Amino acid sequence: DSLLGGREVRQMARKRSGESRGILGDDEEGSRRRRFSRPRKSTTASTAAPRKTHASIQVPCTVRAFSEAIGLPASEVLKKMLGFGLQFIPSMATFIDRDTVELLAAEMGVQLNIKTAEDLEKELLSGFDAVDEGPELRSSRAPVVTFLGHVDHGKTSLLDRILGIDVAARERGGITQHMRAYTIDRNGRPITFVDTPGHEAFTQMRARGANVTDCAVLVVAADDGIMPQTEEAISHAKAAGVPIVVCLNKIDLPGLDVQRIYQQLTANELLPTEWGGEVEVVKTSALTGEGVDLLLDTLLTIAELHDLRANPDRFAAGVCLDASIHEGRGVVACLLVQKGTLRVGDAIVCGEASGHVKSMLETSKNRRVQEAIPSVPVFVTGLDIAPGAGDRFQVVDDIAKAREVAVKRNAIRRQMHLSNAPVHVTFENLLDRLGTQKTPTLNLILRADVRGSIEAILKELTKLDHPEVKIKVLQSTVGGITEADVQLADASDAVIVGFNVVPDENARVLADNRGVQVRRYDIIYQVTDDLKKALEGMLKPERRESDLGRAMVQRTYAISRVGVIAGCRVIAGVIARNARIRVIRESHIIGEYGIESLKREKDDSREVRDGLECGIKLNGFNDIKEGDILECYRVEEVARTLS
Ligand code: GDP
Question: Which atom of ligand 1 is least distant from the CA of 219?
């Protein structure tokens, strides 16, 4: 139950926050600020009072740690939690998160000084990451550029051409697998290229707090034009807020319709300069080399416009782009220096890894170097374990400090993990979350079965003109919800709205892990209706769906006068006779039906578990197909008042 703790209690806390808003309602400001900013009167009579009126606590924490901090026996804290009407019995070891801690403190009239993982992280590195960065200390640095685009549009070939690698040789090599990063020299001015295996990787780095790129090159093959992945790449780049240069590649091919692509770009809000807009479009051929120099010059111009600078005279800090373990060399990490100068012998901490920089190799020439300045990627050996892509690195005083930070980070992460800590914006917590922003913006990622639905929803959304809250659609594309969408939502704190589509299995798991809300709809006005309510803070989870399990259709049997029976295998959870089934085909919702009969072998069954086979006949639906996924769920009415 200690794993369930955080989430369950948080749900209760959210519900409570709905009620508490009523109490604070007379004060507009107060209701928009974080809830429980003022302790409110206890609603539950408690026999014992905490010994302390002020306390400090690190969240998430266990019930035990909380009770010790406020000076009240854990049994009393548990009693209070039971008063919340939880679905489970909490224990001393149950992890509770910030919401719960605030709720408890408010109920008990204790003033808390709450520290989060970010606060702790700042404390860990205080003195190292906060060195004076006055503009006079900064020197200009190379732009860091990332190529994005649809597969096969020529990202790899272009980069190879720029780096002077034989294009034909790469053909035999196959796909881009690892992150590559290189610095090239163009007439004495450096440019750094980071080659990510896709926009997922690009966004995954951002989700980890690593803003690596200064400029995104959107590669579009002139014969293909804008494809689904190009559209996704556009939204990922836009969400990152980086300038976009379009590279119209394969310009050597005959019979091209460039105007058509300009139209497509314009439709995606990338108006080319030739058409009076602000987006540079450079026509290139990775095959002949045409336009490649112009592309480089364009990138340098953009860099100049943005006046990219960093201070080279400080403890180095930056990002790990990739790491692997090599026989003989140990951990080899590709680090991109963003500030300061990294030197051989420096003590560094990178995520949960630490060590001395034993050796450094320039990434493009595999040559040993002694130091690396901002915007320069290097291969570094000497770390004890392989850090993750997107982990930040920092030089510290000595190896003892590096170890200490790494170990503490590991402890914090484990605690965060246990308490399901990272929670993003949801329709229910919207007001509380946005209330703390300067210009409150709700980020949405829209996925639908057809273009028409997207257009209809977008149109409805424009009608939702809220005076204070802006709705920003980061991405609106056709198709099922993917891992990349969840990455984007995670990095941009967004809610995913699926219209007649569902997340695939990987996306579902990732969304769960990252605390990203995925809302699914099949009626357009319901999307805007819910949004309206959410913006008013009125959305109460009246109907809650609980997922019971999933089955895969393996075979179908048409039986006269009965209909089609689906022979299934349960692949997760259970299928229950009295629950409902959602039929999913290739990530699209086909429909939702009751179960007419559920059989194991020849016998009627109330429930069939994971791993077993069964026969399912749906109510009023016979068009079932092999490979369909049957999602079993139950709709519960959620009581408005609890405890
Ligand atoms: P990526 O998946 O975006 O990295 O694309 P690749 O660089 O692997 O290129 C995909 C295919 O397009 C390869 O067969 C390349 O040879 C070809 N290609 C790439 N750039 C050009 C170009 O400018 N002109 C032509 N004709 N073919 C190109």
Answer: 3
Question: By the 8 A CB rule, do 378 and 337 touch?
Answer: yes
Supply the pTM of this predicted model. Answer: 0.66
Q: Within 10 Å of residue 233's Cβ, how many Cβ atoms?
A: 29
- List 392's β-bridge partners, or say none: 319
pLDDT for the residue 9 = 46
Q: Using one digit for the tens of pLDDT, what is the confidence trace for 250-268?
A: 999 999 999 999 999 999 9
Q: Is the CB of 155 under 6 A from ligand 1?
A: yes
List all residues 6 or more positions away from 27 whose beta carbon is below 8 Å from its beta carbon: none
3-state percent breakdown (helix, strand, coil) of the chain, nearest 5: 30, 30, 35
Query: Which phi and psi angles does 464 have, rounded to 5°?
Result: -80, 70
Using alpha carbons only, how large is the chain's radius of gyration in Å? 28
* Residue 411 Cβ < 6 Å to ligand 1: no
Measured distance CA(462)–CA(470) in Å, rounded: 10
167 Cα–ligand 1 center, Å: 9
Highest-confidence segment of 195-204, 288-297, 612-621: 288-297
363: closest CA among 329, 335, 386, 382?
Answer: 335
Beta bridge partners of 629: 552, 584
Rounded to the nearest whole angstrom, what is the distance from the C-alpha of residue 158 to the centroid of ligand 1? 8
Contact 436, 527 (CB under 8 A): no
Which two three-digit tokens encode residue 385?
């374990």
Three-state DSSP at 512 gives helix
23 Cβ closer than 6 Å to some ligand 1 atom: no
Residues 471, 444 contacting (CB under 8 angstroms):
yes
DSSP codes joined into one string, 155-179? HHHHHHHHHT--HHHHHHH-S--S-
Alpha carbon of 163 to ligand 1 centroid (Å): 15
Residues 427-450, buried b or exposed e (16+ Cβ, 10 A)?
A: bbbbbbbbbeeeebbbbbbbbbbe
Our answer on whether the CB atom of 156 is closer than 6 Å to any ligand 1 atom is: yes
253 lines ligand 1 (CB under 6 A): yes
Q: What is the pLDDT of residues 128-183, one digit of tens each?
A: 765 556 666 788 999 999 999 998 999 989 988 998 866 455 544 433 336 678 89
